């Protein structure tokens, strides 16, 4: 049975590598063409960043391939021999925690290179060594406390129920919902500085926008995201009473009021169209399939991996192989997601205007140096949002791809 899992992982690895090579070759050619969407001075830079980031992903994929086989050949067996604890749930907590920490340490060079070299080079990252260490310590504390509690919980369920995968699914699904509810509060207390908007005129406009679609939230906040990164972003965080509108200070600094309202209008489109509940439903269905699959594995797999069919091994197998299933499901989920994005664009542009939304998207692309062109296969596997050019077409905005001015476009006469 292990052979089937290895074959699946190898197929996953080959597709990842192939799409990365195709994307790199595609962007290398595309960045030499006349700029579209991005300004002339940012078009080639964005292409170079896309290529360097993809090359880093390639190197990381090869590295992870070696680590994967090291784990299943000798690593898991060796770690199992070193953790001699009678309690099954306690062994699971120690084993999984050590497994995650080792993988984090092994992957640390790639994370550090991206944060302090690649992203610094392209003027994204403002991260300092002291801030990085503080963030890492805080994240580690959260993981050791709450992550370990979740591992203990699922281990006890595996240990005490024959059809553990059903109860395990309910438990983990509930944990994910709880995390989504608490996320903005945790970010506020431990990582970001949440503040009420200083621009009261903007706050009033946003409150009117939220009221127009009956979106109830605990407030509109800005965060000091620029201390870590220069990219522009905004999000609706939390669930139920913890819902809040969060704007990056970088976004507030770069976009006009009308453009900000258009961006928020797009996000409100997801709310109004029920996309949040749909996404929770899709996530729940996928998780249920995963638990049903990994909850009914034969003892043969664990024997071949030289570990026991116990909670710690079941959790590890889930962690190692679920990304493969996710990868092959993602194209279908992305099709649904891209459809939802078009619908949210339409809703947002009706709340404000197509021109404001297009203007905001153009600024976001330029400030975030998002290269606008990708290989179709790369889009198929990795794009949860439609390519920006396609979004513009749906918004009746035509990019003049043969123009010397990348931002020169026009709306159709009926707009």
**C-alpha termini separation:** 59 Å
Q: Rg to the nearest angstrom? A: 23 Å
Shape, principal axes of CA atoms: globular
Number of helices: 14
Strand order in the largest sheet: 1-2-4-3
Helix content: over 70%
- Using DSSP, what is the number of strands? 6
Q: Which structural class matches the secondary elements?
A: mainly alpha
Largest sheet: 4 strands, mixed
Low-confidence stretches: 401-411
Give the topology string: H per helix, E per strand.
HHHHHEHEEEHHHHHHHHEE
Mean pLDDT: 89
Beta-strand fraction estimate: 5-15%
Strand-helix topology:
Blueprint lengths: L1 H29 L9 H43 L5 H34 L7 H32 L3 H27 L3 E3 L3 H13 L7 E4 L10 E4 L6 E5 H6 L2 H16 L2 H20 L4 H6 L6 H41 L2 H14 L8 H7 L5 H7 L2 E3 L9 E3 L4
Helix pairs in contact: 1-2, 1-11, 2-3, 3-4, 3-11, 4-5, 5-9, 6-8, 8-11, 8-12, 9-11, 11-12
């Amino acid at each position: 049975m292990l052979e089937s899992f290895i074959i699946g992982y190898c197929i996953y690895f080959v597709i990842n590598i192939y799409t990365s090579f195709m994307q790199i070759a595609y962007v290398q050619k595309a960045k030499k063409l006349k700029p579209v969407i991005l300004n002339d001075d940012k078009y080639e830079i964005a292409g170079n960043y896309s290529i360097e980031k993809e090359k880093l992903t390639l190197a990381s994929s090869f590295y992870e391939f070696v680590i994967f086989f090291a784990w299943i050949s000798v690593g898991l067996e060796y770690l199992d021999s070193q953790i001699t604890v009678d309690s099954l749930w306690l062994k699971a907590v120690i084993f999984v925690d050590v497994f995650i920490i080792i993988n984090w340490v092994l992957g640390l060079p790639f994370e550090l290179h991206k944060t302090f070299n690649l992203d610094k080079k392209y003027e994204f990252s403002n991260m300092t060594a002291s801030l990085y260490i503080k963030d890492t310590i805080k994240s580690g504390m959260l993981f050791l406390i709450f992550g370990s509690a979740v591992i203990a919980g699922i281990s006890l369920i595996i240990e005490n129920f024959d059809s553990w995968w059903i109860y395990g699914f309910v438990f983990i699904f509930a944990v994910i919902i709880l995390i989504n509810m608490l996320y903005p509060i945790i970010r506020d207390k431990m990582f970001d500085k949440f503040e009420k908007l200083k621009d009261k005129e903007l706050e009033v406009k946003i409150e009117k926008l939220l009221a127009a679609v009956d979106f109830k939230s605990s407030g509109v906040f800005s965060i000091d995201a620029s201390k870590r990164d220069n990219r522009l972003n905004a999000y609706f965080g939390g669930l139920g009473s913890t819902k809040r509108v969060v704007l990056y200070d970088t976004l507030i600094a770069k976009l006009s009021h009308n453009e900000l309202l258009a961006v928020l209008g797009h996000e409100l489109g997801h709310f109004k169209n029920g996309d949040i509940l749909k996404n929770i439903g899709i996530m729940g269905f996928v998780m249920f399939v995963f638990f049903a699959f990994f909850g009914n594995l034969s003892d043969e797999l664990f024997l071949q991996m030289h570990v026991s069919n116990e909670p710690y091994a079941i959790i590890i197998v889930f962690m190692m192989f679920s990304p493969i299933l996710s990868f092959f499901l993602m194209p279908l989920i992305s099709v649904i997601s891209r459809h939802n994005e078009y619908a949210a664009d339409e809703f947002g542009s009706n709340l404000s205007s197509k021109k404001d939304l297009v203007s905001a998207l153009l600024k976001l692309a330029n400030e975030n140096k998002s290269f606008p062109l990708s290989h179709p296969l790369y889009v198929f596997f990795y794009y949860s949002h439609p390519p920006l050019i396609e979004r513009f077409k749906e918004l009746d905005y035509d990019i003049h791809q043969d123009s010397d001015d990348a931002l020169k476009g026009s709306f159709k006469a009926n707009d």
